[in-house]
Amino acid sequence: MYRNQIKKKERKNEKKTLKTIFGFFLLGNSIFLFLSFFSFLFHWKHDQSQLEKLFDKEIIAENLLGKMGATVSHCFIHCGIGVSAFFIPILLFLKGLKILFSEKEFFNDFYQSTIYKFLFFIVWLPIFFSVIVPHQGIFSGIFGFEIGNYLIHLFGKVGLYMLLLTSIIFYWIIIFRINASTIKNGMKKKIQNINKKIETTLQLCNYFDNNPEMDSSFRKGKKMLYSILYKKKEDFSSIDLKIDLESNKKKIIQILNHYHIEICEIKANIGPTITLYEIYPKVGTRISKIKNLKNEIALNLSALSIRIIAPIPGKGSIGIEIPNYKRYPVYMKDILFSEESHKKSHNMELPISLGKTVFNEIFIVDLAKMPHLLIAGSTGQGKSVGLNVMIVFLLYQKHPKDIKFILIDPKKVELSIYKKISKSYFATLPNSIEPIITDLHKVKNILNSLCKEMDQRYALFEKYKVRNIKEYNNVIKKYNKYHLPYIILIVDEFADLNMNHKKKQIEIYITRLAQLARAVGIHLIIATQRPSVDVITGLIKSNFTARIAFRVSSKIDSRTILDCTGAEQLIGKGDMLFSNRNELIRLQCPFMELSDIQKIVDFYGNNNKKHEYFFLPEPGIINENE
Ligand SMILES: Nc1ncnc2c1ncn2[C@@H]1O[C@H](COP(=O)(O)OP(=O)(O)OP(=O)(O)O)[C@@H](O)[C@H]1O
């Protein structure tokens, strides 16, 4: 018994060795053929006359691979199928790879689909060349020339052109599974897109023209900004992803069936970064069974990481999020000027755009309602880009008299780009005008001052018997007095503030603002690289119900931010989870190049010169021992 097993093992090893040798043999041959074919294209005229004297030592072939190369190329290219012969070494190379890596399903699938695609062109190209360039035999080879001639004899030259054209059209239809409805839908979509673009441009122009709150230079400038930023637009083809989609669907069904899980339906939505597969299991299927197959599914699909949402809230289905092998970028300029974002944001007090959902919808939230936002994620996952996107969206949507920023940037470089707009868009202390606070010792002064501003605003509201900033600004119009702007405090690295020995004091200010400042129009956006419990304390967490998690390194970090796992499975570069109370949404944050941010800042800096700093009250006396 034992001996039998050893023999079996030996035979298996022998087979493996033979397979490896054969694989490398094919790879070697393919390289040999490719090089000799390539060289033949340049030296065929010289070498052809020498071929009969193959064994004559005096005669030297010019082909890179000598007389052997020249002879083989002559047989395949000249006497055979012309330049289509190049497909042979490519197919041999793929076959070699397939043999060497037979356990990888990817190679098998790829080889199979490529063979069919190539076979068509191996026949089609020589005939095509025989008609297009009949005197260049090297392109069509004798095979192409003879068949081409015969077909011309049968159908005439025009008939052959039509035959070639029809066959290539059939080929594309079969390969890309095109049918009448896809062509119709494609054309409809294209027309709709063109109309939409024209409409959006007109609507934006109308909006700029009709909005009485905008002074003329501001309006004109916005139009200019539109033309500066909108000059380039990359197009993305989703054909590749659609092919991927079908094979992934099959694989998911296969693996579930393998574990005896039957499903009624599977749907898919291609998002910018991930594709969401919605599975409708048969009644009686245990959800935990599918959840437990996470690793098996990831392995079967060769996916980096997958996330299972079981069940998808509000739907009778289970979601499997799989990263796209090719992600398509979400550009800020597409969001900024889109009709969809204009429609979604125009009734909001402080709209901020967080990106696109897996259903390719633009996701915009009202900071005034959230009312504060906590952002966390490991280094390099997109926090700073996310903050820039929020600032730019607010700049674009709001007039300088409506919003004022306070930027705290312990890293010193991340937010310095906004210095140019500080006069019109920033709130600052009266005695030390410092637009972006980078000195940690000054942080407690500004926070103290902000708390004082909050108290003063509450006193004002009491006097005018209003409950919040919106009501106050409405009432105050009658008295012809200045209305109050919203104040948005942004901290780029909260952990750095907490490292300071004034940690407790800062936490008290932040908590007080987070608890009370909403009604008076003061909102906080706090970002941190270190989502640990000593930075995001229970007190902070309970006051920041809206949270964003970019990719983090561990499940514990994910729980610290979101109270659930998932952020450790994100794939970076702006891939994020937004959580607000019981809602958890996966989004792709838009991307903005630094040069575009600079253009926007320059534009707003130049167009709002007449606006002045918004001064906060003098900070009160701070007890240093607190
Ligand atoms: N939304 C996005 N789309 C595409 N790429 C992105 C996106 N966000 C970030 N990136 C890429 O990731 C890089 C790092 O992003 P970013 O500087 O925002 O990270 P970070 O989380 O702020 O890092 P740190 O905490 O170290 O400052 C960017 O330079 C960019 O190449």
TrEMBL record:
Source taxon at top rank: Bacteria
The entry's keywords: ATP-binding, Cell cycle, Cell division, Cell membrane, Chromosome partition, DNA-binding, Membrane, Nucleotide-binding, Transmembrane, Transmembrane helix
InterPro entries on file: FtsK/SpoIIIE/SftA, FtsK_4TM, FtsK_alpha, FtsK_dom, P-loop_NTPase
Domain FtsK: 359-559
Gene Ontology terms describing biological process: cell division
Binding locations of ATP: 377-384
Transmembrane segments: 21-44, 71-94, 115-138, 158-180
Matches recorded under PROSITE patterns: FTSK (PS50901)
Location of the protein in the cell: Cell membrane
UniProt membrane topology term: Multi-pass membrane protein
Cited Pfam families: FtsK_4TM, FtsK_alpha, FtsK_SpoIIIE
Family of this protein: Belongs to the FtsK/SpoIIIE/SftA family.
Name recorded for this polypeptide: Cell division protein
Organism listed in the record: Blattabacterium cuenoti BPAY
Taxonomic classification: Bacteria, Pseudomonadati, Bacteroidota, Flavobacteriia, Flavobacteriales
Gene that encodes the chain: ftsK
